[in-house]
């Protein structure tokens, strides 16, 4: 899937002026602002077009409806997450978890994410879009972190690509699921002490993974 905020060309088969990255950014920002102020049920494409200063037809040329628009507005926020090399896997994990938690504290991120997740429980197409626009794209951070850790000798390489993909999915689910639950469901702080404890627990699991999914053989 193309990222709407970075697509500056007309989709194949369409004619007209190229898409404007600046206009897309304004539309996505207006979507987040409107969602915080109005909530999901009251948000309309008309509200967004008025706030962004564009015609409603401009929105529908880019997004088929509110669900797609809100997901892409959330995805743009998540695309800002980074994983600079902090010198160790433990430091990398702590950094990205704190960065993720800071993002979830922003009203526009929290409101938009909870709205689309709630709506997706009865909309399979929306679930698919969340998976492709947010989940699959953010797994890049896990892939990058593991590659660095393997190069440092902190984690073993996995020759089986299907197993490596499974491990990536599992790490992402553990980190994203735990932090979202802590920040948005339990409404508890994701502070440095909690992050250090969570990272230590995750590191224990990761560095023991060389024994395989079934774990080490029992001692005789």
Descriptive account of the structure:
Helix content is 66%, strand content 0%. Helix 4 crosses helix 6, helix 5 (89-104) runs antiparallel to helix 7 and helix 7 (124-152) packs across helix 8. The model is unreliable at 1-17 and 210-220 (pLDDT under 50). With 220 residues, the protein is mainly alpha-helical. The radius of gyration is 20 Å and the shape is elongated. The protein has nine helices and no strands.
What attributes does this structure have?
0% strand, 9 helices, disordered C terminus, mainly alpha, 220 residues
Topology diagram in text:
Blueprint: H1 21-38, H2 45-52, H3 56-62, H4 66-78, H5 89-104, H6 107-120, H7 124-152, H8 161-185, H9 192-207
Summary, kept brief:
The protein has 220 residues and is an all-alpha fold. It contains 9 helices and no strands. It has helices spanning 21-38, 45-52, 56-62, 66-78, 89-104, 107-120, 124-152, 161-185, 192-207.
Distance between the termini: 52 Å
Beta-strand residue percentage: under 5%
Low-confidence stretches: 1-17, 210-220
How would a textbook summarize the main sheet?
Answer: none
Number of strands: 0
With helices defined by DSSP (H or I, 4 residues minimum), what is the helix count?
Answer: 9
N to C succession of SSEs: HHHHHHHHH
SS content category: mainly alpha
Q: Rg, please?
A: 20 Å
Helix share of residues?
A: 55-70%
Mean pLDDT: 86
3D shape: elongated
């Amino acid at each position: 899937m193309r990222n709407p905020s970075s697509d500056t060309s007309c989709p194949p088969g369409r004619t007209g002026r190229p898409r404007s990255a600046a206009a897309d950014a304004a539309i996505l920002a207006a979507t987040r602002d409107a969602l915080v102020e109005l909530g999901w049920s009251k948000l309309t494409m008309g509200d967004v077009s008025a706030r962004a200063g564009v015609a409603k037809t401009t929105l529908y040329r880019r997004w088929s409806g509110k669900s797609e628009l809100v997901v892409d507005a959330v995805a743009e926020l998540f695309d800002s997450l980074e994983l600079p090399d902090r010198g160790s896997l433990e430091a990398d994990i702590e950094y990205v978890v704190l960065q993720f938690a800071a993002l979830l504290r922003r009203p526009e991120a929290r409101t938009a994410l909870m709205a689309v997740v709630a709506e997706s429980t009865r909309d399979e197409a929306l679930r698919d879009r969340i998976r492709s626009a947010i989940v699959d794209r953010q797994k890049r951070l896990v892939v990058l972190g593991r590659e660095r850790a393997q190069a440092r000798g902190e984690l073993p390489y996995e020759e089986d690509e299907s197993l490596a993909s499974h491990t990536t999915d599992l790490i992402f689910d553990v980190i994203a699921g735990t932090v979202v639950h802590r920040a948005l469901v339990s409404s508890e702080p994701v502070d440095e002490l909690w992050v250090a404890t969570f990272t230590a627990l995750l590191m224990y699991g990761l560095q023991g993974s060389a024994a395989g999914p079934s774990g080490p053989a029992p001692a005789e």
